[in-house]
Amino acid sequence: MGAIAMTRPREQTATSRYVGTRVQRVEDARLLTGHGTFVDDVTRPGMLHACFVRSPFARARINGIDASAALALPGVHAVFTAADLNPDVKEAWHAVAGKDVPDTPRPPLAEGEAKFVGDPVALVIAENRYIAEDATDLVEVDFGPLPAIADFTKAQTSDILVHEGYPGNIAGGLSGAPPDEEVFAAAPCVVSETISQQIYAPVPIETLGIVVEWQAPSEELTIWASTQTPHELRAFAARLLGIPAQRVRVIMRDTGGGFGQKVVPMREDMCIMLAARKLPAALKWIEDRRENLMSAGQARHVTGRARMAFDEDGSILAADIDFVQDVGAYPTPYPVLTAAAIGMFFPGPYRVPKASFNYTTVFSNTAGLAAYRGPWQFESLSREILLDIAARKLGMDPVELRRKNLLRADEMPYVNPNGMPYDHVAPSDTFEQAVKILDHEGFRKQQRDALAQGRYLGLGFAAYIEPTGAATGHLGTEGATIRVEPTGKVNVYVNGGSTGNSIETTVVQLTADALGADIDDVATIQGDTAVTPYGAGTQGSRSGPMTAGAIHEAGTLLRRQITAMAAHYLGVDDSAIELANSRASVRDDPSRSVTFAELAYRAYYQPQQLPPGMSASLEATARFTSQAPIHWANATHACTCEVDVATGKVTLTRYIVSEDVGPMINPTVVEGQIAGGTVQGIGGALLENLAYDDDGNPLATTFVDYLLPTTTEVPPIEFGHVEIPGPGVGGYKGVGEGGAIGSTPAVINAINDALAPLGVTITRLPASPAAIVALLADKG
């Protein structure tokens, strides 16, 4: 999708034949020909189907539920209410927070009161989805409507409480060091803005879905799920139902996107697990698109005041952010915890002497907050908008202001004023590369010429630094099993959680190099908890560095065993053996060699020919535990646009991303991840808005109202790569979230740059045509 500029290229070695190359994705053949297996493709004997009765009110008492008419409908097997399912919950904590972290309420079905439009209040079970859908209309719920609080900015002063026991609707909050007001008071230049980000949603192409089958005689539970974390889903199900984890199996085949929404099981998932034990056959629930937009979880939705102080030359003196984030009625724990990251990361990739933050998370009668790609994105959005405003106030080009303040490689390690330890990064490198690809001076001339003709062109930058592969809690370890089969072919077993991020391809590349195998001899098995080692799945941009570590550990053990077998077979010392092309050869005499297939035949079928004491095993399992707390990645996004001041339409004309994610396992995969995130961020800047009215009614529950970016809105993306190895195995860093972090502020800054001659600055998103026209009208 555009030009590629490479700097600091990774040196290829004899043992890295595949890593670093554009190996074609192994997933593509089945996915592009329609042979993938998604949850809705799973069928089981006698399978039943579920559909939820949902509240049409943002807040209402549930005075009673009459399911008699629904139960009388032929094909209906059961109708469950909170009284039937909720008492069966044993434990409902998830590893992203842990068992000791206080959590907000999250009952499977609404108890006593519905708290948002779409809140599940009953569960209908029928022979097929059609009957179940019809039966939901026959369930009579006696709702007593109550006043709702939908505007989270008013939640703390409202008389309405979303949850009893949470005064002021406050779910949580945290403060860092207090702001140094003396610095702000004395600084030659201070900029302060209130910046508001709308609600938008992950919108995976495959909605949520789950099939649960309970085998009563053996008391075993099998789950087929659309999930990013199969092993943690297994652990969650065991805790939820109070059954031994070894009696739970989770099978995850193909998952059509997750973006964070599929990390933690939703309340609906809990309902299906609980209901399945009460039924004679497997139970399937597939969320439709309206349900997904209405109740699967909101994201972003933050408003806050950001301030920065500068000296007369534009050097940053201090930064402060004070914000409020909406967590809806029933948030998942992940994004509530990551709200702190907005404050911690606010200094970003810049040289900031003093920083402070304060935040509050509040409940509202809307869908609960769910994780979404780069859930702390607001820190970059608010900081980067503020920097451009400051540049105009100082009479500087935003490029010069960033150039003056960005951190350099020779300043590492560097601890930001909130205590975040940066290392193995050089934010100034990605910035300078982006500026060079853009031809900054050339664009400024083009912009001046266009303005003389009455056209408004703009340029926006956004630089950020992000943590990837954070080694905290269960995220800090990952397992892998590598097995040479009797045919000599190789299987690598990893937890998986692949939701479009190409883990299948990258682990095959890593394994082929780890063993010296031909890549065509390597395959992978993922997503089945019965055969794969425990792993935390796809979240937190961890898959690259963590699976690379796990494969390195297991591959080292297995390579040692292959070498020992080959040395005995060839009558040489272990040190004389080298492995390549699925063959072990004598280094000084390549004519003497043995294939992996020949070694495997001996190990499996002629183990007596091995020397005494030598294991016949050609399999290794290992766990990698990261010794680096964080693998820091960074990037600079640059965007140019033209704004039609008559209609408010924004046309993006160029888009550049220069990133450093360390050495690339597969450049095509890296660019695909960046492009996907970038497009999502563009949607958040221009189009997407999961709006509610004042009474808490959702206004965008179809794609007619909830607008997504398409190829019409997105120009070709140009990539630049800076490769600074990280602290872990192979130097790899994560790449999953960055595109979604940098693109929204880059687009907004480009629009603001275009409109600067008219005195217009967008600080409330999205920058829709109507919003732009209204701001221009206000300026006359």
UniProtKB/TrEMBL annotation:
Entries under SMART domains matching the protein = Ald_Xan_dh_C
The family database entries (SUPFAM superfamilies) matched by this protein are listed as: CO dehydrogenase molybdoprotein N-domain-like, Molybdenum cofactor-binding domain
Alphabetically, the GO molecular function entries are: iron ion binding; oxidoreductase activity
Keyword terms of this UniProt record = Molybdenum, Oxidoreductase
Any idea where the Aldehyde oxidase/xanthine dehydrogenase a/b hammerhead domain is?
A: 33-147
The cross-references to Pfam families, in alphabetical order and at most eight, read: Ald_Xan_dh_C (PF01315), MoCoBD_1 (PF02738), MoCoBD_2 (PF20256)
Query: This protein is called what?
Result: Xanthine dehydrogenase
Q: Which classification does the entry list for the species?
A: Bacteria, Bacillati, Actinomycetota, Actinomycetes, Mycobacteriales
